[in-house]
Structures are given as C-alpha cells and as structure tokens.
C-alpha cells in the first residue's frame, strides 16, 4: 500500500512550530550565557583555586560528563521535589542544560587557558597588573580565541540536546512536533519539517556565533 505525502496541515501548524522554535532559542540563549560564565569561573577555579575547590570542580565535571543528560534532567525535575525543591519545567530544563553544558565547556575553556604561554602572565605581573587583571585582560581573551570553534560546536550540540526536555513537558520544538503528529497522524511529514527547522536553527546559530566571535575576538575565529 502506497503512502501519500500530505503537507496540507502545515498551514495551521506554523504557529505551534514557531512557538516551539522560539522556546528552543530561549533555552539555548540562557544556557549559553550562564553556562559559558560558569565554565570560565570553573576553569579558573580548577587551575588557580584552593585544593578543595579544585577537587569539587573536578568531581562535578566527571559526574556531569559521565551520566546521561536525561537522567540529570529527571533528577532535577522529579528528584528535587522530594527535598522540597520544585521547579517549573522550563526552569528545570534551563538548570539541567546549563549544568550539563558548563561541565563540558569547563574542560574546553581550561584547554584554552593552558594554551596561553606562561611567560605572558609573568610579564604582566612584572608590569604591575593584578592577577585578576592579568586573567581578564591578557589570558582570557587569548584563550577564548583559541577555543572558540570548539565552544561554538558545544553550543550547537546543546541546542540539539534541548529536544530531550520535551520529556518534562517543556513546549519546545520537539514537544510541539510530538503534539502535531499525535493530532494529524502525519508522523513522517511532521518530523521531516521539524528536522528542517532544527537544521536551519543549527546553521543559523553557528553562523551567528562565528560572526559575533569575529567582531568580539578579531580575525582568525572560524
């Protein structure tokens, strides 16, 4: 029996798909901003902080990188209420995504910090700059330029991973796709369209990040 493609339902589904895409974009914007900030602080603390802090960050990184994201999400959304901590689904999703992304980007940022020659730090200190000034003005900009391609890829991966949060009823793109195919019974067409939307989001996000990186960090960012 042949299968006839039917995209006639799409006209009435544009709003739902657009809302889902907007929620996906919101999730990745918040995750990228907060996750990158945490990764910079974590990478700096892991290299220059006290021993206890270094070990705590190391444990956090290993736990988050060696457990499934879905389990982390369920722990936050379903597990924390047992301790009296209840989060709205979208807040739980943002927290889970941020913590997961930061664990990976701590290692990425750390590799960039290690790539900056030690002599530059010593020279800046010799000129009278404070350690914090050396880190912010000398070391960090060079480190970000080195690791920017890897950081960009991690952001895109996290955006794609956001599909998992549909499991806790966050109305992002995959959630809306599930609802649409349940109402229309056109699974192939629904997921084909949503796949194309994800592809467009990924390509647009990567292009935006590369363009922004070149403006902020200068030439050489790709």
UniProtKB/TrEMBL annotation:
Its main location: membrane. Keywords: Cell membrane, Membrane, Transmembrane, Transmembrane helix, Transport. GO terms for cellular component: ATP-binding cassette (ABC) transporter complex. The chain crosses the membrane at residues 20-45, 66-84, 90-113, 190-209. GO terms for biological process: amino acid transport. It is a multi-pass membrane protein. It comes from the Bacteria. InterPro entries: AA_ABC_transptr_permease_3TM, ArtM/GltK/GlnP/TcyL/YhdX-like, MetI-like, MetI-like_sf. This is Amino acid ABC transporter permease. PANTHER family: ABC TRANSPORTER PERMEASE PROTEIN, MEMBRANE COMPONENT OF AMINO ACID ABC TRANSPORTER. Belongs to the binding-protein-dependent transport system permease family. HisMQ subfamily. Gene3D superfamilies: MetI-like. It is found in: Cell inner membrane; Cell membrane. The keyword DNA repair does not apply. It comes from Mesorhizobium waimense. GO terms for molecular function: transmembrane transporter activity. The keyword Ion transport does not apply. It holds the Pfam family BPD_transp_1. Residues 21-209 form the ABC transmembrane type-1 domain.
């Amino acid at each position: 029996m042949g299968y006839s493609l039917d995209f006639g339902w799409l006209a009435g589904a544009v709003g739902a798909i657009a809302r889902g895409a907007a929620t996906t974009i919101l999730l990745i914007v918040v995750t990228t901003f907060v996750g990158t900030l945490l990764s910079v602080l974590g990478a700096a603390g892991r290299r220059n902080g006290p021993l206890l802090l270094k070990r705590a960050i190391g444990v956090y990184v290993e736990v988050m990188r060696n457990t499934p994201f879905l389990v982390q999400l369920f722990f936050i959304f379903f597990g924390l209420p047992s301790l009296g901590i209840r989060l709205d689904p979208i807040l739980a999703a943002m927290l889970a995504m941020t913590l997961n992304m930061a664990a990976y980007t701590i290692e990425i940022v750390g590799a960039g910090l290690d790539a900056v020659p030690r002599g530059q730090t010593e020279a800046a200190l010799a000129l009278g700059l404070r350690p914090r000034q050396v880190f912010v003005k000398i070391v960090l900009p060079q480190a970000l330029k080195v690791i920017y391609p890897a950081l960009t890829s991690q952001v895109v991966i996290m955006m794609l991973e956001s599909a998992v949060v549909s499991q806790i009823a966050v109305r992002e793109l995959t959630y809306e796709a599930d609802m649409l195919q349940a109402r229309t019974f056109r699974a192939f067409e629904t997921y084909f369209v949503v796949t194309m939307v994800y592809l467009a989001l990924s390509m647009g996000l990567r292009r935006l990040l590369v363009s922004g990186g070149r403006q902020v960090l200068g030439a050489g960012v790709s």
